[in-house]
Amino acid sequence: MTDAVLSIRDLCVDYVTEHGAVRAIDSVSLDVYGGEILGVAGESGSGKSTLVHAVMRILPPPAVIRGGVVQFEGRDILSLDEGELRALRWNRISMVFQSAMDALNPVITVGEQIVDTLTAHRTIPTAAARARAGELLEMVGIPDSRVDAYAHQLSGGMRQRVCIALALALEPAVVIMDEPTTALDVIVEREILNTVRSLQRRLGFAVVYITHDLARMLQYSDRVAVFYAARIVEAGPSAELHRAPRHPYTQGLLRAFPTVHGEEEARSIPGSPPSLVNPPAGCRFHPRCPFVFDRCREVVPEFVSVGPDHAAACHLLG
Amino acid sequence: MTKTVARDSGLSLWVHAIRRDRKATIGALIIAFFVLVALVGPLLVADPDAPVGIPLQVPSAQHWLGTTGQGQDVLAQLVVGTRTSMAIGFAVGLVVVLVGALIGVTAGYFGGRVDALLSLLFNVFLVIPGLPLAIVIAAYLPSGPLTLGLVLVVTGWAWNARVLRAQTLSQRKRDFVAAAVVSGESSFRIVTREILPTMTSLLVAQVIGGTTYAIGAQVGLEFLGLGDVSVATWGTNLYWAQNDSALLTGAWWTFAPTGLCVALVGFGLVLLNSGFDEITNPRLLQERTWRAYLEKRGCEPSRSTPVVTEHD
Amino acid sequence: MRYILRRLGFYLLAAWVALTLNFFLPRLMPGDPATALFARFAGRLGPEAMQALRETFGLTDASLFSQYLTYLGNVLRGDFGVSVAYFPAPVSQVIALGFVWTIFLAGTAVIVSFTIGTMLGIVAAWWRRGWVDTWLPSALAFLGAFPYFWLAMVFLYVLGFTLGWFPLGHAYGDDLTPGFNATFLADVARHAILPVSTVVLATLGGWLLSMRNTMISVLGSDYVNLARARGLRPGRVMMRYAARNALIPNVTGFGMSLGFVLGGSLLTEIVFSYPGQGYLLVQAVRSQDYPLMQGIFLVITLAVLAANWLVDLVYLWLDPRIRDSAS
Fold first, then answer.
1. What is the pTM of this model?
2. How many domains does chain B have?
3. Cβ contacts (< 8 Å) between C267 and chain B: which residues?
4. For position A58, which CATH number holds?
5. Neighbouring chains of C at 3+ CB pairs within 8 Å?
6. B311 lies in some domain
7. Does residue B208 belong to any structural domain of this protein?
8. Do A64 and B286 touch (CB under 8 A)?
9. What is the DSSP letter of A300?
10. What are the tens digits of pLDDT across the range A48-97?
11. Which of residues 210-239 of C touch B (CB under 8 A)?
12. What is the longest distance spanned by two Cα atoms in chain B?
């Protein structure tokens, strides 16, 4: 087993509001191994997006990191200063955001933005940078003649590919993708995911892939972590999770997505995710859980190993 | 920090906003002071038109702000002028928003050709410079507050129309409006019951801004001599000061206090408006809370997400 | 290209509205300004002047429509009628000289003020905690609350009259003859400092706040976050990603405020006896010289419209999205 390239332990993140602090990430621990695709699933507001922004320390105000350790390539990100963070960001760990239209500067060309990224971290003459920008675009499937295009002149799918090219420009070790295809139609989505997977196999970077579409993710990733109400409830190899999900929430999620062959009826989980301002005591899923019993309402469940590298936090397992 | 605050609504929301923000409180106090002077002041001072002493006297115990080139009491003129200037200012500020709302909301709500026509109308008025237009209109009319008010409204309404149209357009697209349209509510009811209530804070800000504009523009026009120069207002005071060559005779007291009052009122209105900023832009409040939180714990607000590990 | 033509069309329309207003105003006004005017000047003006005045007020025998056409024709030829106060000089001649000085004063002030104000606004938004963001905007807002001409009076009194650091008025010393030589230009500059500074200080706060506010909202956008996440140097993010985008709405605001600033500048000219249109305006108002007033109105309006069109061109250059948009 290779060492984890990114290792998160007991991370806590709060949003400070005038009504008090809201805990958006509650004592989350997670490992990312080199060269793997790790999927992070969960509903909107469950904390998955906050997690990866916190790892790069680009959460905007009013967010504050309240505790934990984030080890990346042997260094604790939470103790680095601005200069060290800037050197680390994009060089070793990069990100693809959800909405590509807003992620690109509207008044300069996409080529110039790639060149900006290259020249910010490497001493490289402009001509060479431009050439490299063209190569990167080709790599993600955009003809390099588009290097002088502005963001508004490209389609949604192409803009997202530009963002991927940006993310790969410095050959980082980890690429985080925060719902990169949510705003695109399914055909484009599939093409992009295939592009990412083939690039990943070729260049060897790890991918942390965030989505609310658990079924899609099980197809593409090697391992999966499931978020619920600011905590991780289950994590393990995709094949395992698909075959034998152990947490009631994961089971519910899988049932909620219909299969193509229509063997089973899709059934959604009753109720809705809790507000993080006043979350339920004990196991946060207990109000919606079909197997709930007394202990669930009072005690926070610990992680229990249920298979090789597969663990879930549920009292049913302990 | 952690006590829960009951949801404010209606008037208490505004009062709370004023009390909470120091700038707005100062602004409110300044305006309150001048309103008081406008209401009560003229009863307490001498007749501003009567010559009471030697012309161009330096401020003294007898005449706190000295005398004008015609021997009139500067303080009396200032106080009496406050009433007229502020009354016209506020009235124009109100009317300008009413007209702007009428045209802007109609344009934004109905869209299509109505919008195109009305937009063209206010865009043209926006681009034609106000002062020359005001002069040309006012020159033909009898001088007095009505002419002044009319001219100020004609040159000032277009900006409000533009802003309110933009706001109406964005509200128009929202679901609750679509629901009202589908359920067959009349346009008038939709506009007055669904759309306008969402714009209250904007309308208040506009009235304040309109008043600021009106007072400033009024003073400018009167300075040129387009107001009724026999009536004491802030602007006419300055007109006479210039006419009597105040600068070249060194009689600073004939113009300095008046200008100061204009600026204080204008500034007070701006401060008041900035306090309401946080109602219209909640992100500002959010940022402020975050900064206070960090400072209390001795942390620097940095560009990267800060790490605060002590337990409170 | 379509954008430029469309904007040009709009300004031509606005110019036409101004012209038409100018034509109809004297004919619409209640009371009878014409009679009062004639009564005043009856003995003093010759028959041609009276005839010219009658034409201005539409008191001739021609139909309204043909009067309108004559009027338009005259304006297009640069004939704005004959001035009453400066009789027999034609209005165009009276205005011409003053026009240059007004444009010089207002133009310099507006460019200096916008540039400095915008730069300060960028700094204020970027370094939110510094004094540039905490005290300066309030201080400048206070300055901006004073009427421009009042600030002019204060400056003139303190810096000119009391301290004697600057000349007391006019555009150049009475002893110099105008010409493109260093001495004259230096003297012009010396005389321009106080008036220009007045307008600059009065308007600086507005530009600063406006740029600061757009910067703050741009700084929260995704592409700025991404730029930071990509590890670009802060200076680069501030200028190329944030400021460049925040500038766009401010350029629009700049165009819209030109008319307003010009108005204030005219009033400032009066205080400094600057030989521009402001001084002419006062004379026109005092002597009820309607042709002159209308002439100044037209000329100023056309100048502002032209300046707005130039600003639109700059806007086109700044925002690549406009170049491609068809609507």
1. 0.82
2. 1
3. 131, 220, 223-224
4. 3.40.50.300
5. A, B
6. no
7. yes
8. no
9. P
10. 888 988 888 888 778 889 888 999 988 888 888 888 888 888 889 999 98
11. 220, 228, 234
12. 74
